[in-house]
From TrEMBL:
GO terms for molecular function: alanine racemase activity; DNA-binding transcription factor activity; transcription cis-regulatory region binding. PANTHER family: HTH-TYPE TRANSCRIPTIONAL REPRESSOR PURR-RELATED, LACI-RELATED TRANSCRIPTIONAL REPRESSOR. It comes from Pseudarthrobacter chlorophenolicus (strain ATCC 700700 / DSM 12829 / CIP 107037 / JCM 12360 / KCTC 9906 / NCIMB 13794 / A6). Its EC number is 5.1.1.1. InterPro entries: HTH_LacI (IPR000843), LacI/GalR-like_sensor (IPR046335), Lambda_DNA-bd_dom_sf (IPR010982), Peripla_BP_I (IPR028082). This is Transcriptional regulator, LacI family. Keywords: DNA-binding, Isomerase, Repressor, Transcription, Transcription regulation.
Length: 336
């Protein structure tokens, strides 16, 4: 079939006529919100592409009272995981005919609410929050206002949430170190006001409890998720003669900071100090000593979050994805 001549606007009526279906049938087949794979729908989409038809999603959304825009709120885009999460959310939203816009809020609840209001002022159809603190009031306020929203990577246990199984991830990390023969294990978590840090620590403790050991209080450190936080924790743990033989860091940035501290103390990652990170960011496998890390399926979490937003009546409100441990050279049996 020949495309329409330049300058001729192909209409929905043209597509319906060429497909041999009604205009309403053609419209349903071309609606980005549908996933129909019937022969008729596939044929309509094929002919629309051949004709060069471009659906006016904006006009269609206005008729439905929608903007086809979603707001994504993250603490900061300088955080690798947050940047990767937004990219996956943007990709998942686009595949469903939505446009995603991002705003950053830092860790201050007041700034977070201000950023959320900024997105809502732009008439987004829903909000995705990657910022839910355990003491955060924003999800509750959104529920009271009946604002469609979902949480990603974190949960308050009430609002729709898509996240990885952080407790299982923490368990896998420490279980791996125990299986290698380590008993002197430290854990460096993220901020204690986040569900991620608490759940990963709970998983680590579960693994230690199974081995008949416990995590020493002096070797259980909480702080930020940045490289500098990892370096400070590494200095604290490795700057004494009584040091752990292995460390579980609750994200890859913390692990990289610990690597820097280990280098400063002339400790080799792997032979002298085993180290496990979390999230398996792209840099983890490319470090001078490739980092063992817990991989979180961000793409699956993103798709789930978009589904929770676009189908708010779904029964399953908290959906948890399974993480996977990726062993690399940063972990080895303890030194003799």
């Amino acid at each position: 079939m020949e495309p329409a001549a330049t300058g001729n606007v192909v209409t929905l009526k043209d597509v319906a006529a060429a497909s041999g279906v009604s205009i309403s049938t053609a419209s349903r087949a071309l609606d980005e919100r549908t996933t129909s794979r019937s022969a008729a729908a596939v044929n309509v989409r094929k002919i629309a592409e051949e004709l060069g038809y471009r659906r006016n999603s904006f006009a269609s959304s206005l008729r439905r009272g929608e903007t086809r825009t979603l707001g994504v709120l993250v603490p900061r885009l300088s955080d690798t995981v947050m940047a990767l999460m937004f990219e996956e959310l943007e990709r998942a939203a686009s595949s469903r005919g939505y446009f995603a816009m991002v705003a950053t809020s830092g860790d201050d609840p007041v700034d977070e609410r201000r950023a959320a209001e900024t997105l809502l002022d732009r008439n987004v159809d829903g909000l995705i929050l990657a910022t839910a603190r355990l003491d955060d009031e924003l999800p509750r306020l959104l529920r009271e206002r009946r604002v469609v929203h979902a949480l990603v990577l974190r949960t308050d246990g009430v609002s729709p949430s898509a996240l990885g199984d952080d407790e299982l991830g923490g368990y896998l990390a420490v279980r791996h170190l125990l299986d290698l023969g380590h008993r002197d294990i430290a854990v460096v978590t993220g901020p204690d006001f986040t569900s991620t840090a608490n759940a990963r620590l709970a998983g680590a403790r579960k693994a230690m409890d199974e081995s008949g050991k416990s995590l020493p209080g002096a070797w259980t450190l909480a702080g930020g998720y940045g490289i500098e936080n990892g370096f400070e924790a590494g200095e604290q743990l490795l700057g004494t003669t009584n040091r752990p033989t292995a460390i579980f860091a609750a994200n890859d940035n913390i692990a990289m900071g610990i690597m820097a501290a280990a280098h400063r103390h002339s400790l080799r990652i792997g032979p002298d100090l085993s180290l496990v990170g979390y999230n398996d960011t792209p840099l983890a496998a490319r470090l001078p000593t490739p980092l063992t890390s817990v991989r979180v399926p961000l793409d699956q979490i993103a798709r789930t979050a978009i589904d929770l937003l676009t189908h708010p009546d779904t029964e399953m409100r908290v959906r948890i994805s399974t993480p996977t441990l990726i062993p690399r050279d940063s972990t080895a049996p303890p030194p003799p």
